[in-house]
């Protein structure tokens, strides 16, 4: 008897959005390769693929790292259309980037036409606490108003980087299974497997 072929892992399409220079690429590269890039090189659009084990199931993540620079604003609609979940990033040191999250959110809701699209608000550069210019309460208030989770990350120290991606992917999985949104997941860290697969749970 021939063996049944293994089912292909579920594919989740994540889009990184946010103003230029907030750390979208730095977060992506930390998550993908465990490295921090000090130099700032504005992105046009880069895509990445990684397998992770989430709650015992292997899933595949496609990450599209988009351009924050305004020169590329016109092509965002097309990128957003293909997204199933969004990491909306700002820098806690730059109020303008926090203000811009409002526009990104509106654009995503307009393009996706779905209020419940998996979405995470991410305050990056948490290592620069002494340069903080966006109060934590304002960040939490915005996330509460949108009914989305809020996470502070540092692409430099890797703080909460896995957690941010994990929370979003878990939300995407739940939505694909037709489950209601998770209350407030705060998963414990487990040891990571060897690349290209990593365990998130
Ligand atoms: N201290 C600190 N610096 C960071 C952090 N994340 C990113 N940076 C720095 O901020 C600069 C911009 O980071 P990028 O990741 O390139 O920003 P981006 O959001 O991808 O920018 P665009 O591609 O133009 O949209 C770089 O010099 C990074 O090294 C962080 O968490 N902490
Ligand atoms: Mg970039």
UniProtKB/TrEMBL annotation:
Which enzyme class?
hydrolase
Where does this chain mainly localize?
membrane
Q: Which InterPro entries match?
A: P-loop_NTPase (IPR027417), Small_GTP-bd (IPR005225), Small_GTPase (IPR001806), Small_GTPase_Ras-type (IPR020849)
Tell me the compartments it is located in: Cell membrane
Q: Which GO terms describe its molecular function?
A: G protein activity; GTP binding
Q: Which family does this protein fall into? A: Belongs to the small GTPase superfamily. Ras family.
- Supply the SMART domains for this chain: RAB, RAN, RAS, RHO
Q: Whose protein is this, by species?
A: Diatraea saccharalis
Q: Name one Pfam family in it.
A: Ras
Which CDD domains does the protein's record reference?
Answer: RalA_RalB (cd04139)
Q: What is this protein called?
A: small monomeric GTPase
**Gene Ontology CC annotations of this record:** plasma membrane
UniProt-listed GO biological process terms: signal transduction
How does the protein associate with the membrane?
Answer: Lipid-anchor
Enzyme Commission designation = 3.6.5.2
Which superkingdom does the taxonomy of this entry point to? Eukaryota
